[in-house]
Amino acid sequence: MKKTFKLLLLTFILALCVAVSALFYFSYLRYEEAIEALPINDVRLSLKESVNNYVDYEDISPYLLKATVAIEDRRFYEREGFDFIAFGRAMIHNITSLSLSQGGSTIPQQLAKIVYFNYEVSLERKVAEIFLMYDFESAYTKDEILEMYVNIINYGDGNIGIYNASMNYFQKQPEDLDLYESTLLAAIPQSPSYYQLSNHNEATVERQKKVLNDMLEEEMITSEMYEECIKEIEYEQQGYQ
After folding, report:
1. pLDDT tens digits, one per residue of 123-164
2. Residue 223 and residue 128: Cα distance in Å, rounded?
3. Max CA pair span of the chain
């Protein structure tokens, strides 16, 4: 009985090792195909040429940039490489909620997914993202990575990139976005079709408050700025009721 159990356990472990090895092998092939088609050092230039109204980092509101980091990847500037803490936190959430609602993706991983895989969902792609993440962090500064990210993400209502979102929602240049507008925009990309502003969704406001709270926790804003923005959120909500 014990020998049979040990044999089954050994067989399972070997099968698992083979499966993991195969996953990494085929993921690495996907990664090589991706960078052969578009070398990592050419990505920023390619986006500047292909994205309508691409906006440089210094021409984007600091509030929007901070809000994005706070809600999407709060350890973005501290971390180098794969974020095991965020990944572990996401897995615990998925297990306890019996869902796959969180993936633990960092901003560089999400950038890799959009640029190279066009939102394709697969485990193989997920591993390939990690290889690309290290390339992005080697080839570009954190500010450049964040710049590229906000220029290509979906802000709902057909608005791809921060320029289109800023102009179409608020008739403002991205550099002129205030704290209220920035936190509202940063709330959208997690689920653009759900949080887009045309829906007048109360869930969007709740997520905006989470963005604001995360900024306060990360000391990106003062408590006075937080309170003022909360008042503005509540005032704006009254207009939709």
Report:
1. 778 888 889 999 999 999 999 999 999 999 999 999 999 999
2. 40
3. 73
Rounded to whole angstroms, how far apart are CA atoms 66 and 146? 10
Q: Which residues contact 210 (CB under 8 A, 6 or more apart)?
A: 71, 187
One-letter amino acid at 194 equals: Y
Q: CA geometry: angle at 88 spanning 120 and 150, to 5°?
A: 45
User: How many domains, the chain?
Assistant: 1
Query: At 205, which CATH number?
Result: 1.10.3810.10
